[in-house]
From TrEMBL:
Protein name per the record: Penicillin-binding protein
Limits of the Beta-lactamase-related domain: 28-345
Annotated coiled-coil segments of the chain: none
Pfam families assigned: Beta-lactamase
InterPro entries listed in its UniProt record: AmpC-like (IPR050491), Beta-lactam-related (IPR001466), Beta-lactam/transpept-like (IPR012338)
Length: 361
C-alpha cells in the first residue's frame, strides 16, 4: 500500500451546507449508509450541483475518515470507460496517418500471436464481444508486473484458455488490458503517460493516480466486511501485485468528486465531445447495453457502471443521467460483498435525488 504515517483523524464531514436541501441530503445519505451497514463516500449530483458526503473510516486502525484529503479510492471497473475514451481519442488522432484505425480494425495488427486476433476487432474488445473467456486476472500471482509484462501474461493466458464464438458477450478484464497494450503501441508511450496527459492533466485532477504513482502523503483505503453485524471486520487491502496485473482495467485511484469530473469530461470536449461519446457508447459490435465501459439505459438517458475486486470488500457504482445533472458516484469500502445489496444502497439515494428516473440494477 501507499502509506505515510498520519495522525488519527475523525470521520471527515462535508463543509457547512449552504442550503437546507443540502443539509437534508447530507443527513439522508449518511442515514442510508448507516442503515445498510456500509461505509464509504458518495458524490451526490442534484440539478447539476455535486455534493460529497462521507461516512465511516477509510482506515479504521489509524482513524482516518472516509473523505479525508489523504485518501484516494480504487475505481475498479469504473476505469474501463476512461481506457475506452483514450482509444476513441486515438481513433480521431490517427485519421489520415499510417496508424489509422477504427472500431472495425482487427487486433492482429498489434497482437499477431494472439489466438483469433485476425477475427477480433477493436470494437469487440470495447464491448466484451471478443469471445475471450480467460480467467485469473484478479487472482494475485504474488509478483509486481510492469505494464508490458502484465499484457504479455494476458496474451499467453488467452492463448491457453478456451474461447467462445466472437460476437457473444462475456465481461472480461482481458479485453481492456489488451486495449491498454494497443494504446501503448500506437503512441509509443506507457498507459501511465497517456492517462496523465490525456485525462489527469486535461482535467487538472489533483487526486487521481495509477496505483504505482500514489504519492507519499496519500493512501488508498482499507476495505472491511459487514453483513449487518460488527463494523470494520475482515480488513483487506489491495496489494500492489494484484493491481499491477490489471492495467487499464482496475489500477486507477481517485475520489468521487474527480471521477464525476471525468464523467463530465466525456462529453464537454475536454476528453471527448458529444459525438465521440455517442460513438463510444454505440459501437456496432455491442450486443447488450454495454459499450465502451458503460451500460446505457432508458433510451440512453442513464449511464451506469459497477466495479469490485475479488478477495476484498470494495464496491464502486456510478449512475448518472446522460447530461450529468443528476446521479451518484459511490465508492464503498465496507460492504457485504453482494453487488445487488450495494446497488440497493445507491438506488435508495438515487430515488431520493430524482424519483422514478434511475435503474435499480
Amino acid at each position: 500500500m501507499a502509506v505515510t504515517p498520519l495522525a488519527a483523524v475523525s470521520t471527515t464531514q462535508v463543509e457547512a451546507a449552504p442550503s437546507s436541501s443540502q443539509t437534508e441530503m447530507y443527513n439522508f445519505v449518511r442515514n442510508t449508509l448507516q442503515k445498510h451497514h456500509v461505509r464509504g463516500i458518495v458524490t451526490v449530483v442534484k440539478n447539476g450541483v455535486p455534493q460529497t458526503i462521507s461516512y465511516g473510516y477509510a482506515w479504521y486502525g489509524k482513524r482516518i475518515g472516509n473523505g479525508n484529503s489523504k485518501v484516494v479510492y480504487p475505481t475498479a471497473s469504473l476505469q474501463k470507460v476512461i481506457t475506452a475514451a483514450m482509444v476513441v481519442q486515438l481513433i480521431n488522432e490517427t485519421k489520415g496517418t499510417n496508424n489509422e484505425f477504427t472500431q472495425y480494425t482487427k487486433i492482429s495488427r498489434w497482437y499477431p500471436n494472439l489466438k483469433n486476433a485476425d477475427s477480433i476487432t477493436v470494437g469487440n474488445l470495447l464491448t466484451h464481444t471478443s469471445g475471450i473467456m480467460a480467467t485469473k486476472t484478479e487472482v494475485d500471482r504474488g509478483r509486481n508486473y510492469s505494464e508490458d509484462k502484465a499484457i504479455n501474461w494476458v496474451v499467453n493466458n488467452i492463448n491457453s484458455s478456451p474461447s467462445d464464438t466472437i460476437g457473444n458477450y462475456h465481461y472480461n478484464n482481458s479485453n481492456y488490458i489488451l486495449l491498454t497494450g494497443i494504446i501503448r503501441q500506437i503512441t509509443g508511450r506507457s498507459y501511465a503517460d497517456n492517462i496523465q496527459s490525456r485525462i489527469i492533466d486535461k482535467l487538472n485532477l489533483q487526486n487521481t493516480y495509477l496505483y504505482q504513482n500514489i504519492p507519499k502523503g496519500k493512501t488508498d483505503p482499507i476495505s472491511y466486511y459487514s453483513n449487518g453485524g460488527k463494523n470494520y471486520q475482515q480488513a483487506a487491502y489491495l496489494k500492489k501485485s494484484l493491481v499491477s496485473q490489471i492495467p487499464g482495467a482496475g489500477n486507477l485511484f481517485t475520489t468521487t468528486e474527480e471521477y464525476y469530473k471525468m464523467q463530465v469530461g466525456l462529453t464537454d470536449g475536454s476528453i471527448l465531445n458529444k459525438n465521440d461519446f455517442y460513438y463510444l457508447t454505440h459501437l456496432k459490435s455491442k450486443v447488450v447495453n454495454y459499450s465502451g465501459g458503460l451500460y446505457l439505459y432508458n433510451n440512453d438517458n442513464i449511464k451506469n457502471a459497477y466495479g469490485s475486486f475479488k478477495g476484498v470488500h470494495f464496491g464502486t457504482w456510478m449512475q448518472l443521467t446522460a447530461d450529468n445533472q443528476n446521479g451518484i458516484v459511490m465508492f464503498l469500502n465496507q460492504t457485504d460483498d453482494n453487488e445487488n445489496n450495494q446497488k440497493d444502497v445507491g438506488y435508495e439515494i438515487l430515488q431520493h435525488i430524482k424519483p422514478n428516473t434511475f435503474v435499480a440494477r
